[in-house]
UniProtKB/TrEMBL annotation:
One of its GO terms (biological process) is hormone biosynthetic process. Heme binds at residue 391. This is Steroid 21-hydroxylase. Its cofactor is heme; heme b. InterPro entries: Cyt_P450, Cyt_P450_CS, Cyt_P450_E_grp-I, Cyt_P450_sf. Belongs to the cytochrome P450 family.
């Protein structure tokens, strides 16, 4: 248990790999965990043997936050889960084709205005990034976007963040390992229950509002999901999906899609402050290729320097550094080791991205490694996991990372405030999401000389 209480667990598990190898076992009470630390081994388990390792650990507290295992992220692998994931996946795909690009462009332009309004003062941008990412998801989900000062938005964020933070706390996880403790008073657990109830109230209100609208936003995912439910009821495959599944899918999209993208944007600016010449190269590429216009996602193949930056930040700071734990649903093997049924599998994506056998100088920020002749290969990157549990929002996230970064670096140069003695701390704070410690930055006009 002591091994799991380190403040930066991904770094600690990566250090253990240097002593014990890229696959090792930890025992916690009567739970056996196997930690995977290289991208080949992670791929073997998650992709090649996906049907052996697609389960999620069964947990008392997980059941509470996921409405009895009915979220996609925490639900165990079974027919109901497969039907649920298929339903949400096709709704997301439909909306990616129809409206995602416009939605992200709208938010990127709004973010541009917010940054302009700061007029070169030193600010912490994390909340603005969260609002931009969250507005993409709430627009997709129920056709609604919020102002940063909106009370409703603040309530939604505070409640979702609290749930993630409380659920990750040892006061809660101890209840999974030691059932007897569930009988004792536990104020942290009571708070978790309260926040879950508050979350459900907020989401139910939105779904009710959506259903009662005469003129519904046709592009919203909620519409596709509800239509999908109706179709599902008519099929005879024996699996019943209900409004609860639409409700929990909304929770999945909001939790999975807000802090991840926002944390990644924060990391990107932090790394660029450490190596301003990378920012200049991306800016020059944007000027040359776009000739003054704003970028489209289809431009990505013509913007290799920008893409190398995106890959390098995903490599160094995979925002879900330990993915979400998997569970062996039958006896199997990984890298030649026998893995019994019910073993918990931890894919250490952070470790895989720092594997010295794959990456030269793995701890350095060097986007150029992904450019021709730089020696890096995107094949060894695995920031979204893989197989049956591949991040459900991968396509949404990729488009967001590309467009937000391109818009920001086209119109702004990020510089550190003079008053600040040091640059942002790059170690980060690891919980379910790996975040950078808060820092301030000045967004100013890009260097003259090159003009759009
Ligand atoms: C930089 C952005 C993102 C990264 C790096 C990321 C990464 C991940 C990872 C590593 C997992 C766990 C995979 C596993 O269990 O093996 C995951 C799961 C998930 N992500 Fe993302 N994610 C991002 C953005 C998003 C967005 C934008 C959404 C929603 C639109 C989203 C929704 C989900 C959901 C629902 C799951 C659970 C999938 C399942 O259990 O089947 N994520 N993500």
């Amino acid at each position: 248990m002591m091994e799991l209480t380190h403040d930066h667990l991904p770094i600690h598990l990566t250090n253990l790999a240097q002593r014990y190898g890229n696959i090792y076992r930890l025992k916690c009470g009567n739970t056996t965990m196997v930690v995977l630390n290289s991208s080949d081994i992670i791929r073997e388990a998650l992709v090649k043997k996906w049907s052996d390792f697609a389960g999620r650990p069964l947990s008392y507290t997980g059941d509470i936050v996921s409405g009895g295992g009915r979220t996609i992220s925490l639900g165990d692998y079974n027919e109901e889960w497969r039907a649920h994931r298929r339903l949400v996946h096709s709704a997301l795909q439909r909306c990616c084709q129809q409206s995602l690009h416009d939605v992200i462009e709208g938010q990127a332009l709004h973010l541009r205005k917010v940054l302009m309004d700061y007029q070169g003062s030193a600010v912490d941008l994390s909340e603005d990034f969260t609002v931009a990412a969250s507005n993409v998801i709430t627009t997709l989900a129920f056709g609604k976007e919020y102002d940063k000062r909106s009370l409703e938005l603040q309530q939604l964020h505070s409640c979702l963040n609290e749930i993630v933070a409380l659920w990750g706390s040892s006061w809660i996880s101890v209840l999974d390992s030691f059932p007897l403790l569930r009988k004792l008073p536990n104020p942290v657990f009571s708070r978790l229950l309260k926040e879950v109830a508050r979350r459900d109230e907020i989401i139910s209100k939105h779904l009710k509002n959506y259903k009662s609208q005469d003129k519904k936003n046709e592009d919203a995912i909620t519409g596709s999901l509800l239509q999908g439910l109706d179709k599902h009821r008519n099929t005879e495959d024996g699996v019943l999906l209900t409004d609860i599944h639409v409700h929990m899918a909304t929770v999945d999209l909001l939790i999975g899609g807000t802090e991840t993208t926002a944390a990644w944007l924060n990391w990107t600016v932090a790394f660029l402050l450490h190596r301003p010449e990378v920012q200049t190269k991306v800016y020059e590429e944007l000027c040359t290729v776009l000739e003054g216009r704003y970028p489209k996602y289809s431009d990505r193949h013509r913007l290799p320097v920008l893409c190398s930056l995106i890959h390098e930040v995903l490599r160094l700071r995979p925002v879900a550094p330990l993915a979400v734990p998997h569970r062996a649903i039958r006896d199997s093997s990984i890298a030649g080791h026998f893995i019994p049924k019910n073993t918990v599998i931890i894919p250490n994506l952070f470790g895989a991205h720092h594997d010295p056998a794959v990456w030269t100088d793995p701890y350095s920020f060097k986007p150029e490694r992904f450019l021709e002749g730089g020696g890096g290969s995107t094949r060894a990157l695995i920031p979204f996991g893989g197989g049956a549990r591949l991040c459900l929002g991968e396509s949404v996230a990729k488009m967001e990372l590309f467009l937000f970064t391109a818009y920001l670096l086209r119109d702004f140069q990020f510089i550190p405030p003079e008053s600040e003695a040091s640059l942002p701390d790059l170690r980060g704070v690891a919980s379910v999401v790996l975040k950078v410690k808060s820092y301030t930055v000045i967004a100013t006009a890009p260097p003259s000389g090159q003009k759009h």
